[in-house]
UniProtKB/TrEMBL annotation:
Belongs to the PAL/histidase family. This is Histidine ammonia-lyase. There is a cross-link at A148-G150 (5-imidazolinone (Ala-Gly)). Gene3D superfamilies: Fumarase/aspartase (Central domain) (1.20.200.10), Fumarase/aspartase (N-terminal domain) (1.10.275.10). The lineage of its organism: Bacteria, Bacillati, Bacillota, Bacilli, Bacillales. It is found in: Cytoplasm. One of its GO terms (biological process) is L-histidine catabolic process to glutamate and formamide. One of its GO terms (molecular function) is histidine ammonia-lyase activity.
Length: 509
């Protein structure tokens, strides 16, 4: 996945893409709102005011929340109810989300509100847009969401800043939310009836984390093919396994794409071998790379599809259908669709790292590495070379296996058993993001292990694509002639792979 968006993002609730979310979250792309969405929000707000004037009993408008849904709240207390809701629900725990995640959360909440089913005033949504465009980023703790009734706790921390409370980052400094708004030239707004609930009742936290993790994982799948190709050459891999004829008769799209990538990268190689030339067939971690990588690729396409549906959905409760003069209490806030997708993402990214670690072992193990020096060092014994690099990869892969345990199969009842099944989707999304980050580290180790191995062969014998990949690695990290601290080297390559323009380089391979 290559980032190309540069135009301002105009939200309308219907057409936001994952790439646009990445643009706003990471690259500061400016945000505006569609005029039709503003009109829709205005009409819905007018209907809310009508319900208030008629003293209708509507959940969250003239009632309490959760188990208190049967408790009537008078019109005079409706404003106090919103502030009490946000303050009481701001129960987040742990370290704050990265600023890019919170920016994505803000954008997704804006987009959901722009659909016009939440009953919020357009000026509140415009204030949130101003926060994005002027760089006010609420401090939102990572933990505390059950992923049903929406991401209540983390979204409450975001909402605090809208009326001048809580904390926020502004120009890289953490400060009181009201101070950040003042420095950015934004005047906080007092919340009206229904608006507090409209701000926090949704799946935007799990979805924002998931969008960024999925984007990174789709890029990771591209890098996995690159690493496998480089390792195949270092180990005199059998090229027949990547022939299109094999993959055409098992036509999973991801499998065919991975095989095509590896074959293209190794075009012209004088290190790859033919069936029977050195051996009849390779170990699975080489020969089955297209099948394993491809399965993750296909899963990631499915996950991206689910995320794009969710980021263009109304996930409030209740939902207000002003044109029909109806208010419906439902369950669109339940995060199960994203929870399942995030667990699938965790498994898919874990497998890309799992098979990569097996290839690393083949590169460093003198019993498996086709005559390369043990642990890829010239002076084994005195020097350890890449011995502990494989340990580090194995440790991270093992950690991923623990993290990949599904979150969505757990549920703890809450709110006096009114909310008796929850998704744990935000936990699933956070775990998936960590797994993806870990997987980048494993692939960085594989790339540098393969580059080191190829220095003991002859890099000039590489294929047209793998030679360019080798050169890019060597531009950043030198051959390990003597033992040194490798941690920095792996971090350098992992960070390069994550950079927005790195796939532009990859496209040239």
């Amino acid at each position: 996945m290559q980032y190309t968006a540069v135009k301002p993002v105009i939200v309308n609730g219907h057409s936001l893409t994952i790439e646009q979310v990445v643009g706003v979250a990471r690259h500061g792309v400016q945000v505006g709102i569609d005029a039709d969405s503003t009109l829709k929000m205005q009409r819905t707000r007018q209907y809310v005011e009508k319900l208030l004037s008629e003293k209708k009993v509507v959940y969250g408008l003239t009632t309490g929340f959760g188990k208190f849904s049967d408790t009537y709240i008078s019109g005079e207390d409706a404003k106090a109810l919103q502030v009490n809701l946000i303050r009481s629900h701001a129960c987040g725990i742990g370290s704050p989300f990265a600023e890019e995640v919170v920016r994505a959360i803000l954008l997704l909440r804006i987009n959901a509100l722009a659909l016009g089913y939440s009953g919020i005033r357009p000026e509140v949504v415009q204030l949130m847009i101003d926060m994005l465009n002027r760089g006010v980023t609420p401090v939102v703790p990572e933990k505390g969401s059950l992923g049903a009734s929406g991401d209540l706790a983390p979204l409450s921390h975001l909402a605090l800043v809208i009326f001048g409370e809580g904390e926020a980052y502004y120009q890289g400094v953490r400060m009181p939310g009201g101070k950040a708004m003042e420095l950015a030239g934004i005047t906080p707004l007092a919340l009206e009836a229904k608006e507090g609930l409209a701000l926090i009742n949704g799946t935007q936290v799990m979805t924002a984390v998931g969008v960024l993790a999925c984007w990174d994982a789709q890029r990771l799948a591209e890098w996995a093919d690159c690493a496998a190709a480089l390792t195949c050459e270092a180990l005199y891999g059998v090229r027949d396994a990547f022939d299109a004829a094999t993959h055409a008769i098992r036509p999973h799209r991801g499998q065919r794409k991975s095989a095509e990538n590896i074959k293209k990268l190794t075009t012209g190689s004088r290190l790859m071998t033919r069936q029977g030339e050195r051996r009849v067939q390779d170990a699975y971690s080489l020969r089955c790379a297209p099948q394993v990588h491809g399965a993750s690729r296909d899963a990631l396409e499915y996950i991206a599809e689910k995320l794009e549906i969710e980021i263009n959905s109304a996930t409030d409760n209740p939902l207000i259908f002003a044109d029909e003069e109806r208010v419906i209490s439902g369950g669109n806030f339940h995060g199960q669709p994203i929870a399942l997708a995030m667990d699938h993402l965790s498994i898919s990214a874990s497998e890309l790292a799992n098979i990569s670690e097996r290839r690393i072992e083949r590169l460093v193990n003198p019993h498996l590495n086709e005559g390369l020096p043990p642990f890829l060092t010239k002076n084994g014994g005195l020097q350890s070379g890449f011995m502990i690099a494989q340990y580090a990869a194995a440790a991270v892969v093992s950690e991923n296996k623990s993290l990949a345990h599904p979150a969505s199969v757990d549920s703890i009842p809450s709110s006096g058993n009114q909310e008796d099944h929850v998704s744990m989707g935000t936990i699933g999304a956070r775990k998936a993001r960590q797994i993806v980050d870990n997987a980048y580290s494993v692939l960085a180790i594989e790339l540098l292990s393969a580059a080191q191995a190829l220095d003991f062969r002859d890099p000039q014998l590489l294929g047209s694509g793998t030679k360019k990949l080798y050169d890019r690695c060597r531009e950043r990290v030198a051959f390990v002639d003597e033992d040194r601290v490798l941690s920095h080297d792996f971090q350098t390559i992992a960070e390069w792979m994550k950079q927005a323009d790195s796939l532009a380089e990859l496209a040239e391979l």
